[in-house]
Write a structure and sequence with these properties.
single chain, Lambda Exonuclease, Chain A, 18% strand, alpha+beta, 11 helices, 5-stranded mixed β-sheet, 267 residues, two-stranded antiparallel sheet, globular
């Protein structure tokens, strides 16, 4: 299958290729648990998450679309964000403020000035992968744009300690896969950067270089997990339900009452 902007997110492409987002659907991140059954339902087309249920996601997607150069198409697909006169609704106005903050910083825009939405594919760990790079500087670096709640926020986990937002949401995994796919295609191992802008009242911005050791560790993790994902996609393994995601709640079938002591689960 030859990928382009029109079919990149299609069901056909998702069945044939593994992507970082699909990988995280199966495996999860520290900040969001994976669900094998939900991941397969997305691939089958029987479940689709509604982005418009989250104002924060809509703001982030608006900013993404601006830097992709696809804002007109985004506006046409999401009229719910706009008033009758075409202006953004009040709860989404911060998206334009975030864009303006990014665009008045010279370094930020230098990193975002590469080739936009570059699609590459490669075979890796027995799977066909697809990636779409936000800002690609051939021979120099790979840049991914991220909107976040706060660039400096830390996330606490009893078993591993404190994490930054890159570790929390699996962005080291994304960087590792993007770097390797580019290397397979070009023969060059390029540094990976995150261009981040926060959704705070006063947006914070930062260009973040990801240490190679973290990318190497993430790629090792991916290599370990891919065989299980491929077996699930081929339906040779029975998927596990997480029991907590929207898909599991929607498809939940009660078979018996539970004890009140079970409501806390494992603490």
């Amino acid at each position: 299958m030859l990928l382009n902007n029109e079919n990149y997110y299609s069901l056909e492409a998702n069945r044939e290729f593994l992507s970082v987002s699909q990988y995280k659907d199966f495996m999860g991140t520290y900040g969001s648990a994976g669900c094998e059954e939900c991941a397969l339902a997305k691939i089958d087309g029987t479940w689709k998450e509604n982005m418009e249920d989250s104002d924060a996601l809509m703001v982030g997607s608006y900013v993404d679309a601006h830097f992709e150069g696809t804002l007109d198409l985004f506006k046409a697909k999401h009229p719910c964000m706009f008033k009758k006169n075409g202006e953004l609704m009040a709860k989404y106005i911060k998206a334009n403020y975030m864009i303006q903050r990014c665009e008045r910083d010279e370094l930020f825009m230098q990193f975002m000035s590469g080739e936009k939405q570059v699609i590459m594919t490669a075979e890796m760990f027995g799977a066909k992968w697809k990636i779409k790079i936000d800002s690609y500087h051939p021979g120099r670096c790979i840049v991914d744009l991220k909107t976040c709640q706060s660039i400096t926020k830390t996330f606490s986990h009893p078993d591993i300690g404190h994490l930054n937002f890159l570790a929390e949401w699996g962005y080291y995994i994304q960087g590792a896969v993007y770097q390797k796919v580019v290397e397979i295609n070009t023969g060059k191992k390029l540094p990976f950067f995150i261009a981040a802008v926060s959704k705070e009242k006063e947006p914070d911005i930062q260009v973040i270089a990801v240490e190679q050791q973290l990318l190497d560790e993430a790629l090792t993790e991916v290599e370990h997990n891919v065989p299980n994902i491929l077996a699930l996609k081929k339906r040779s393994l029975k998927p596990i339900r997480c029991g907590q995601c929207d898909y599991c709640k929607y498809t939940k079938v009660l078979d018996k009452p539970i004890w009140s002591s079970e409501l806390l689960g494992e603490v």
